[in-house]
Amino acid sequence: MMSQLDEVPDLNITPLVDIMLVLLAILMVTTPALVYEEVIKLPDGSKSSVVSKLPELEIRVTKDRKVYIKNDSFMLAEFPDSFMMQKSKYPLKSIVYIKADEGLSYKDVMFVLKTIKQAGFTNVSLETNG
User: Phi/psi of residue 100, each to 5°?
Assistant: First the structure.
């Protein structure tokens, strides 16, 4: 006669692990595809067509005073220190385009411009719609 202790049920977790691995793979594939783009409304200006072979650097400043360099974002107050640490990635001859939201104060835009000029960049442009 077998006792009930001899019949220990076996828990099969293989299907659970398979499902979790599939979900993990889906998450890993879709996460890099998610790109968050901030909305910047540029002020109107005159259109000029300048063709250049120099490397370009685009700096975006949103209405809520966040500064973006490629995919890195900084608050406006910490931008000078962060930019000084990253400036070695770009040649000083690079053309720097500043895209600033028209809702920003003039003082904030000039703060970004002054920081870029102090870092040694001389080809700096403010970008507008026009």
Answer: -115, 135
Q: Tokens 């000039």 appear where?
A: 110
3-state secondary structure (DSSP) of residue 100: strand
Give residue-wise pLDDT tens across range 60-92: 999 999 999 888 888 999 999 988 888 888 888
The position carrying tokens 């973006």 is 68
pTM for this prediction:
0.60
> Do residues 121 and 92 touch, judged by C-beta distance below 8 A?
yes
DSSP 48-89: ------S-EEEEEE-TTSEEEETTEEEEGGGHHHHHHHHGGG
The whole-angstrom separation of Cα 124 and Cα 127 is 10
Whether 108 contacts 76, CB under 8 Å: yes
Residues 76, 101: contact at Cβ < 8 Å? no
Asked if 57 contacts 95 with a C-beta cutoff of 8 angstroms, the reply is yes
